[in-house]
Structure formats: structure tokens, C-alpha cells
UniProtKB/TrEMBL annotation, chain A:
It comes from the Bacteria. Pfam families: CoA_trans. Heterodimer of a subunit A and a subunit B. Belongs to the 3-oxoacid CoA-transferase subunit B family. This is Probable succinyl-CoA:3-ketoacid coenzyme A transferase subunit B.
From TrEMBL, chain B:
SMART domains: CoA_trans. It comes from the Bacteria. NCBIfam families: pcaI_scoA_fam (TIGR02429). One of its GO terms (molecular function) is CoA-transferase activity. Coiled coil: none annotated. Pfam families: CoA_trans. This is Succinyl-CoA--3-ketoacid-CoA transferase. Belongs to the 3-oxoacid CoA-transferase subunit A family. Keywords: Transferase. The keyword Transferase applies.
Amino acid sequence: MNIRERIARRAEKEVQDGFFVNLGIGMPTLVANYISDNKQVVLQSENGLLGIGPYPTKENVDPDLINAGKETVTAIDGASYFSSAESFAMIRGGHINLAILGAMEVAENGDLANWMIPGKMIKGMGGAMDLVHGAQKVVIIMEHVNRKGQPKILKQCSLPLTGKKVVNRIITDRAVIDVTDQGLKLVEVMEGYTVEDIQNSTEPELIIADDLK
Amino acid sequence: MKPVHTSFVDAVKDIHDGATIMVGGFGLVGIPENLIKALLETGVKDLTIISNNCGVDDWGLGLLLQNKQVKKMISSYVGENKEFERQVLSGELEVELVPQGSLSEKIRAGGAGIPGFYTPAGVGTPIAKGKETKVFNGKEYLLEEGLVADFSLVRAAKGDKMGNLIYNKTAQNFNPMIATAGKVTIAEVEELVEIGDLPPDQIHTPSVYVQRLIVGKQEKRIERLTVSD
């Protein structure tokens, strides 16, 4: 199992039966592949679809039916289509139970940076800034360290923010960490790592959960 | 009855240099393909374009960019376009990035006669710079202003000769709000039907918002073909 798959499989456990969920572009989209058949889950796509289905067969591709990553998709039975304003009304209005997004940096107070690197090209934030305020729970999935091996979980973000104090939980290839009023709480350590490994690759001081898994 | 044009160039010929236009679509889905191409032909310059994205290098709004007809883009995501990057870095093109939910609501508000609204999106980020903020129930919000345009270009799957429109699947996206926010809204429809042929309770855009109609065959290019087999 590669790192992305391992993270996506762990993130699936955040998805509860009956949830309406928005999955971000990239690794978060992979989470859909692992959602257990025992759960009835409705995936929202911010371009105007509630009820994303699997990728279509070649024969069933419809160019008017895409997800927010601009990939061709299908719609499940019971799906609905709507405008972008309606889509963000349901996001901003708190009707989406969970958003799973990627990140470049997360700070100990829940600040998130995932849209812009100054000096490099600015592509735009898409719907991320709306999603982080609207979803009932915001879970970040990402690799624990960057390509240089440096922590991505920091005391303060160095990059421009997507949102302030918006992250509830961070899931990485090494750990699961909750953002709490007291600080970052380590709640799970992945196989192959120790608490010490996690602390050494995380800039802020971690609180260790009593029921650490 | 609304004028039904037969020439795309005629339908857009009064879009003048320096005009602000809104263009429907998300990625390449739901874009008014032929109205965009007609602007290439009229050669109108210094456009301010409000649209969620800016096409790709050789299709959609990317064509107007290649032809240097765009002065400013107001969008939420423009990452699919190399020429865009080049023009921004060289200072030829101005860009204003707006969170996608704020952009859709700014357009909706503009069309609905609402000059501004408060939203949490962007608080504490570079987007908040210069914007008024206000605290409601202990949470900070920022003021976003409504957007209107000289012309709105939309695409619908079906239209009737009154100007009522119905969109197909996720080709709806920004089109309904954009139709409401242009002083002149030009609708490119895949199929034009007689008055009375569209079920009134299925209409997405009521006829009052649409000033001109034209029938256009769409190429519907696919940006990312993903299949299960």
C-alpha cells in the first residue's frame, strides 16, 4: 500500500453513515474509492452536484457531467444538480457534514495554508476558502513532512492562509492529530512510527491523548 | 419573443472595447463556445472578464487570452492555462482571485439588486486586504460587493423563444447567476423550442433575464477524461 492509499483509507474512517461529504481535489478524491458499502454517503461536488457516482464507462461518458476536479463522473440515483450559488449556500450554510482537504501547511491553532506559494504562479483558491468555514468538520489529509523532510505541521504557517482556525483534525501517513483549544493532540500513531518520531517531525509540542492508539 | 440571431458575430458585435463581460461555465463545461469564438472575430479589446476559470490554452476563454483581448480576469481558479501565467507574470494581464463561493454569490447578489453581503470566506487571508469586516455572534465576516456586467454570455441546453432556459447536469454551474447580472444577456442554446414547449416548473432561468438568443452546436471538449473501464 502506498502512502496516499494508506492516508485515504484512514480518512475513510472519518466518513459516517448518512454523511454529506465534500472531498477536495487530488488525494482527498481518492477517499471515495474506500468508502465502505455499509455506509450510505452522499458526495458533494462544488460545481453543482450532490451525489457523485463512480467514473463512467467509456460508453457512458457525458461531457456535461464533471466533478470539481474537472474529471468526467456519473451521478448516483437520488442525485441533484444545481447552480454554483446554491452549491456554496449548502456549503457555507453548514449543511455539509465533512470536508476532507489537502494542505501545504497547518498551524497548531488550526490555521490552514493550501492555495498559494508567493513568488510562484498563483492558480487560485477555488472553493477552499468557502469550504473551510462552512463544513461542520474540516479534516486535512497530507504527508507528514514536505519533500525536504521538514514538518508541515507548524507553530505558525509561513504561507498565505486559506482560513484561520478552521482545521479540526489532521491525518498523515504517520499520525492522526486533533486541533484542540489546549493545542495539538496526538490521538493515533501509524504502524512503524513511535510517539517520539511524530514529535520530532512536528514543530509544535504535542499533547498525548490518554487513549492514544 | 426575444430576437433569435443567426450570426454569432452579429449577436456580440456591440460588445465594445473595455466592456465588462461575464461568461458562464466551470472548466470547459457549460461555456458558450461559439459566442466566445465570435469575440475573436470582432477583435474587441481590453475586456474585463468575470468567469470562474479562463479556459485552456487553445479553447474557451483561453482563445481570447491568446489573442490579447483580455485586460483583467476575475476568477476563482486559473491554473489550467500556461498563457495566463505568462501574461500575469509579464504584467500584461491583471487578475483578481475570488473564493468560488464568494464569486458565485457576488454575481447572484449583483443580479438580485444586493450591493454587498458578509461572508466568512477569506477572513485572515490575503483576500481580506482592504475589505471591511464585521463580527456577528462572535465570528468575523468580511464584506463582499455584488458584481454586474455590461454583457453576460451563457449557455443552456434548451431555450424557448421567450428566453426561458434549462441547463444540463453540471453545465448549469455559474450560468443561472450570470444570466441575471448582465445588462444584456446573450444565451447560446443547444436547442431552441417554441413558446410553451418547456414545462414552466422546470425552468432554471426565467425569460426576463435573457435579451438575445442564438442556437449553437457545441464541441464539448473534455478536460480530464476519467473512465472506469
